Fold each of these.
Amino acid sequence: MTRPQLFLPIPLLASWCLAASTIALAQSDVALSAKARAIQDSAIVVDTHADTPQRFLDEGFDIGSTDPNDFGNISLDKTKRGNLGAEFFSIWVDPDLNQGHFARHTFDLIDSVYEQAARHPDRMMMAFSVADIERAHREHKLAALMGIEGGHSIENDMHLLRDYYRLGVRYMTLSWSNTNEWADSSGDIDDPKVQHHNGLTDFGKQVVLEMNRLGMMVDISHVADKTFWDAIATTKAPVIASHSSARVLVNVPRNMTDDMLRAVAKNGGVVQVNFFSGFDDENFRKAEAAQEKDQKAAVQAYLDQRRAEGKAVDYMEVDRIERQWLAKIPRPPLKSLIDQIDHIAKVAGIDHVGLGSDFDGVSGATPQGIDSAADLPKITQALLDRGYSAEDIKKILGENLLRVFRQVEQVSREIQASGAAGR
Ligand SMILES: [Zn+2]
């Protein structure tokens, strides 16, 4: 989930939608070579961020849907066409709408992923390890993993963190766009009304170490810069950025500086590039900033109208308004996303870059031609066209993430073998 706190006055439940008019572009604008198809089909392709669970839970969306008019980025049909092997489904709890019951909503979202896997056992399986992802690949099923997006989900309780691990959560983003009680976020770091901690609190550092012990990947997407550096200094295992791009290309606090990219490389981790156009393309970001005031006013007008009528706010409607505004901005070329991958590969190294789409979380604001998981082979083609070798492309498509995940599992085993108990 990327967009809501960028400029909306209220949180959004539903910001996953693609403008229907863009669907016709799918698959039509990039010719796939046999070589690209072969690389795609032989790789274990891993994406580390999709917000589809909100669709499962709030909308009753079935991942088996073959509805040609569905605007979503993810379905079993689409993942099959793109040969996506593993998806980390995001467990994102809106901090404003779920005050007082973060954990309950976290459990509900986790349940929604399991329920989808139970409905489609022939095509999808829950996965909790690298070995599970490899097994799913052999069985031609989508491996469904889970990452919690935002440390507020643990309600400052280490027992809950362990419960989430036991339920299968394999990464946690230390903060979402909201600063929680132990980690500062990039989303509100300049807001003087928010109580900040200068990065991670002592408890926050304990959370990182407990994640290391459990074998849960530490995700530094969304966090404030100081939180990033505290996490890097604290962790005993490689970190991930599950859905982050480079700040030198698009200057938003949510993106990573080159120093951060190099620090992740030194740490042995991986940066999974976000597909959101507002993070990947400077022109898009500027256009979005330029419409911010009018867009806010349009949403506010709707909210005022509902209030005047004494009706509850329909967040699907808010999302529809937002999508209409975003659709006014020309979609950037695929080149903008490839430039991000290329930059991170150059600065951090080819072993430290991967894919973190943010599918179903960016209101359709993806580059031209990337309408769903079915379009992932176009990225492979574009990397080939830039001179990347098959071997390097497979690293980007998933091998780098698998290496980090394996290392996190190994560090966990070592810590537990040394007799360290939970905190
Ligand atoms: Zn996000």
Amino acid sequence: MAGESWILAHEAQIRLGFFVGVFVLMAVWEILAPRRGLLHRKSVRWSNNLGLVVLNTVLLRLVFPAAAVGMAAFAQSQDWGIFNYLDVPFWLAVLVSVIALDFFIWLQHVMVHAIPALWRLHRVHHADLDYDVTTGLRFHPLEILLSMVIKFAVIVVLGPPILGVILFEVLLNATSMFNHGNVRIPSGLDRVLRWFVVTPDMHRVHHSVEDDETNSNFGFNLPWWDRLLGTYRDQPRAGHEGMTIGIRTFREESWCSWLPGLLSIPFSRGTAGYAINRRKWGESE
Ligand SMILES: [Zn+2]
Ligand SMILES: [Zn+2]
């Protein structure tokens, strides 16, 4: 298909274009209509969060130069994966691949909350003391690599069209910046939107310091998995303006806002009181 080969040839530019476009859009929207006042220095948070993004981009290119798209092309050339054996229309294969990849990212997200060692990594995303577009981009390098390996496994089993993988990567990147946006959306509109996409108000619940609220709304892109599988929560108890963002055990800027702290979070302080088999009911933290 002519359109597909053009997209494959310009994959890097397309991804960069969407990233920059959505990022600028969200950054301006956050200034024009913020949902909450920021409690910590934006200049410090932004420079360090974006510094981590640059570091992750370089690292990912070094370790997995071909990335998910390369793996999809390889799977196709080897006839690996379900879609290389099914005779389904191209558009249906793209659609199902995007939805399936989104489900596995949801499942991975639940897993990094449940398993103590993985929660150590994922804490870097949650330790941000404020919640805005840059929060959606900050992940520990080891979590980024783990995420890519899991994507490889899904691609090898699924054998998705390469276009489906590119579409998914662009969508996930864009929706992650959108749903971490510190932006005000009228509640009526939010209610309609969250049947189709995870909205900022929906995902913000997941960034609460309250354990039961953190263990809700794991979706990044499609909101259906949380609703179908019982992890959906409508609003935070304290309200969006009153709720506290972050993790109880990491409250200092040196850990939560500065790059050396962010990189060290997985290797310091235990996971007592949160991770799945570390909880003792009735005992204070
Ligand atoms: Zn999370
Ligand atoms: Zn998040």
